[in-house]
Write a structure and sequence with these properties.
Distance between the termini: 84 Å
Largest sheet: 3 strands, parallel
Number of helices: 20
Structural class: mainly alpha
Length: 499
RNA sequence: GGCCCCAUCGUCUAGAGGCCUAGGACACCACCCUCUCAAGGUGGCGACACGGGUUCGAAUCCCGUUGGGGCUGCCA
């Protein structure tokens, strides 16, 4: 196969949609394994607001996922000359005609037809043979053949036939002279010599029009180009089986990045939607590259399952080396000014939800202290944004205050004062390491006739603030004798303010 | 309404006529391990939408039904 040229062509509409990310990934995998070219084209011809910003977001997200384009970004808005030339050629060849109908007129006629028993919707070809001149608020329609079929040769779906009689004369140039998506898209694919169009299934119904346009362009312009190969990927849906919607579904890739999903894990999960690498599903990139086949892509829609994504992310996090984990956690525990950090991105619609910064100040954070508990932290988080709440007790001036934990672990335990007082005494002079602390605390528990599991709760809440968290004795060992005892004493005082 | 697509456990999938009393993973449940929480281990629950064909034999092929979805804009 000659090296393919495939494009990822998002429109900058606010943030990077997971469905777009999946489409980009499949394009990228396909191109990489065939030594081809991965092209980024920004389809920004509409009312592009804040264009630069959204485009930067797309580029950042692609880069985060390790899929930097080989060419581009090209901007559709910069292709005006090519679009114009195509329109002129098409007009001169007679493929287009001017239409003066308004939406209202068309709808009215459709209604009339329906009343007369003809349910055919769409444009009725009213202006088709009127030979109207161009201009004056007139859109240009494509003269669609009345008989026959257009067949789309789809790499994942096989041959899909569209009867032409059901295809109306569609508009491809707006009344202001600007091309519509269907035309701009086809023209750009021609000028960029695209060989493979890999995109979402929602684009399948528009494909016959683009094929018609492509053929017409071949006849109208001096260059004859081979039609690209098409591959329409199954849609990503929510749990009710509907196409992922920007409104009610968490679809922003930026949001997942903020929450601390690793790009490798995210990419691995994306690859699993509509495709399977085989017996193992958590596989490194080289395996993805080795095994991916467009032909093996599933045809039915796939549910974007955050639970599974999260599980996979947990596996990737645990597979990190300690150093790797410490480095990956950095933005969440010790963000560097000027560099990417959680909280930088906000949902353009809701203005939320950004991951909050760590609860401690940069001055209080100690990388070495964090590193000493990294191993036990690593196996307890599933996304990096969970790291701060596990280690915050180390960097806050006092034990974090969690009312539920206090109530459950201390206030409602009649033995809590005894345990805390016992621990305060026992910790005064015992060797300060996890094993010794374990031993000493176990002895205290047994003297009170309690299992260690139950007896450690008040100490844990007094020092670490919550009933759940890192292993207690490792944590105390790192926190230090003085601070541990100070917090236990503080908890005792809080329990018996009078005494 | 019209056109198109799709149909294996709740979810993602393996399965390309006999290897399937349908395999794995997520989720869920139970047990084990255990200083909390995780992680890990063991086991469990759980699917070929339905009806006709074709065939010695169908989850796999064909047809129909039903169900779901997409598109149907002078948006991209």
């Amino acid at each position: 196969m000659t090296p393919p040229r495939a494009r990822f062509a998002p429109s900058p509409t606010g943030y990077f949609h997971v469905g777009s990310a999946r489409a980009a990934l499949f394009n990228w995998l396909f191109v990489r394994q065939h030594g081809g070219t991965f092209i980024l084209r920004i389809e920004d011809t509409d009312e592009a607001r804040n264009r630069a910003e959204w485009t930067d977001g797309i580029i950042d997200a692609l880069s985060w996922l390790g899929m930097d384009p080989d060419e581009g970004p090209y901007f559709q808005s910069a292709q005006g000359d090519a679009h114009q030339a195509a329109i002129e050629a098409l007009w001169d060849s007679g493929a287009l005609y001017a239409c003066a109908c308004t939406r209202e007129e068309i709808d009215a006629r459709t209604k009339e037809r329906a009343a007369a028993g003809d349910p055919t919707p769409g444009y009725d070809g009213h202006c088709r043979d009127l030979n109207l001149p161009r201009g004056e608020g007139r859109a240009l329609r494509f003269r669609t053949p009345d008989e026959g079929v257009v067949v789309v040769h789809d790499l994942v779906r096989g041959e899909v036939e569209f009867p032409l009689r059901a295809l109306e004369d569609f508009i491809c140039v707006k009344s202001d002279g600007k091309p519509l998506f269907v035309l701009a898209n086809a023209v750009d694919d021609r000028t960029m010599a695209i060989s493979h169009v890999i995109r979402g299934e929602d684009q399948l119904p528009t494909t016959p029009r683009q094929i018609l346009l492509w053929d017409a362009l071949n006849g109208a312009q001096s260059v004859t180009l081979a039609l690209p190969a098409y591959a329409h990927l199954p849609l990503l849906v929510n749990e009710s089986g509907k196409k992922l919607s920007k409104r009610r579904d968490p679809v922003a890739v930026e949001m997942y990045r903020e929450q601390g999903y690793l790009p490798e894990a995210f990419r691995n999960y994306l690859a699993l939607l509509g495709w399977s690498p085989g017996e193992e599903e958590i596989v490194p990139l080289n395996v993805l590259l080795e095994r991916f086949r467009l032909e093996d892509v599933q045809r039915s829609p796939a549910f974007f399952d955050v639970k599974k994504l999260t599980h996979i992310d947990g596996v990737y996090i645990r597979a990190l080396s300690i150093d790797g984990f410490v480095a990956a956690s950095r933005p969440w525990v010790d963000p560097v000014p000027g560099e990417w950090a959680p909280g930088a991105w906000r949902d353009p619609d809701t203005g939320a939800p950004a991951t909050p910064p760590p609860p401690w100040s940069p001055e209080r954070f100690d990388p070495d202290v964090f590193a000493s508990l990294a191993a036990v932290t690593q196996e307890r988080v599933t996304v990096l944004a969970e790291v701060p709440e596990l280690v915050d007790f180390l960097f806050l001036p006092d034990a974090p205050d969690d009312p539920d934990s206090w109530q459950k672990g201390v206030a409602s335990d009649e033995l809590a004062p005894t345990i805390l007082a016992g621990a305060l005494a026992a910790y005064e002079s015992c060797p300060w390491d996890a094993a010794s602390l374990h031993e000493v605390t176990l002895a205290l528990a047994e003297s009170l006739g309690r299992k260690l599991g139950k007896a450690q709760a008040p100490i844990r809440v007094a020092v670490m603030g919550r009933t759940r968290g890192l292993p207690l004795f490792d944590s105390l060992a790192v926190l230090g004798r003085d601070e541990t005892r100070r917090r236990i004493a503080a908890a005792l005082a809080r329990l018996e303010p009078a005494a």
